[in-house]
């Protein structure tokens, strides 16, 4: 495979070379950029496939872990997930693994006006009920790691940094500092297999507002189930959260408090990401989430300690 490419920077031309080198049956298909996040670049290969390439050293191991996890989870979950069919192996031409999966239909919830909050919320609630019930022991054996700090300082420190960066342009965000300084008072009774980054951009929807897939499992972990519920608050507020919980079933005391606090951290993170990378949809999504939290969860976030 010598001469395919080198280094970690991948554009469409280089992605095509790497795919052609390891998967000759796909060589004739066009390769076009789909977008990128903090960790991966994604490319459409023909009309059927999506390939993801890591942007950072060590990212290939994360994609391999994700591939193992999704292969295990997919038969149990009530919604589609992008199980990798192609796994590109690291070699001297590209030092990290990369993966290719069937392209799920629909559009990201971040880009889709959503009117059926309750219907989508119920579907996600059923999905999370099944996901969070999966065996943590099996997930650990597949490489999933523990991601929970009982002091919440990891989330708090990152959110305060985002707050400082954002306040230069939007001084009003400083009003959230007191809430961030008060970390959640509760602890999860049991950690679970979580998506870890469940929010509008990772839920694909059809034109009829039916969920067609849950994407991007790079942050999946053994962690606090409230983190996944936070994505519902961030996206659709109280209406979506309540609809999800009606299907999810019984929750422990404190889970809504933690979910709202995580949603605040996530809103600031999205705004900072959008500002840094000129992604206005993320900025607007974060602003909308702050409005939701102020209007619908203020009592939860500021209750007496």
UniProtKB/TrEMBL annotation:
InterPro entries listed in its UniProt record: AGP_Transferase, Aminoglycoside_PTrfase, Kinase-like_dom_sf
Pfam families associated with the record: APH
Keywords assigned by UniProt, alphabetized: Kinase, Transferase
Top-level taxonomic group: Bacteria
Coiled coil: none
Keyword Transmembrane helix appears in the UniProt entry: no
Domain Aminoglycoside phosphotransferase: 31-254
GO molecular function, one term: kinase activity
PANTHER family xrefs: AMINOGLYCOSIDE PHOSPHOTRANSFERASE DOMAIN-CONTAINING PROTEIN, AMINOGLYCOSIDE PHOSPHOTRANSFERASE-RELATED-RELATED
Protein name, per record: Aminoglycoside phosphotransferase (APT) family kinase protein
Organism: Deinococcus radiopugnans ATCC 19172
């Amino acid at each position: 495979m010598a001469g395919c490419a080198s280094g970690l920077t991948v554009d469409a031309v280089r992605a095509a070379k790497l795919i052609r080198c390891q998967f000759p049956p796909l060589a004739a298909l066009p390769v076009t950029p789909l977008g990128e996040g903090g960790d991966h670049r994604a490319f459409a290969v023909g009309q059927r496939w999506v390939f993801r390439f890591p942007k950072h050293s060590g990212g290939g191991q994360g994609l391999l872990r994700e591939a193992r996890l999704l292969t295990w989870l997919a038969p149990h979950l009530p919604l589609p997930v992008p199980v990798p069919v192609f796994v590109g192996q690291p070699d001297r031409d590209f030092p990290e693994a990369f993966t290719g999966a069937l392209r799920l239909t629909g559009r990201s919830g971040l880009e889709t006006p959503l009117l059926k909050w309750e219907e989508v919320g119920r579907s996600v609630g059923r999905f999370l009920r099944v996901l969070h019930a999966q065996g943590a022991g099996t997930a650990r054996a597949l490489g999933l790691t523990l991601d929970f700090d009982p002091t919440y300082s990891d989330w708090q420190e990152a959110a305060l940094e985002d707050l400082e960066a954002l306040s230069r342009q939007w001084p009003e965000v400083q009003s959230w500092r007191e809430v961030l300084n008060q970390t959640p008072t509760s602890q999860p009774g049991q950690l679970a297999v979580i998506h870890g980054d469940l929010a509008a951009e990772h839920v694909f929807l059809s034109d009829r507002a039916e969920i067609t897939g849950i994407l991007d499992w790079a942050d999946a972990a053994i962690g606090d189930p409230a983190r996944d519920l936070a994505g519902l608050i961030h996206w659709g507020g109280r209406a979506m959260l309540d609809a999800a919980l009606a299907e999810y079933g019984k929750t422990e005391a404190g889970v809504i408090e933690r979910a709202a606090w995580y949603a605040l951290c996530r809103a600031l993170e999205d705004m900072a990401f959008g500002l840094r990378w000129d992604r206005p949809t993320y900025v607007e999504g974060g602003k909308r989430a702050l409005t939701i939290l102020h209007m619908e969860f203020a009592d939860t976030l500021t209750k007496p300690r």
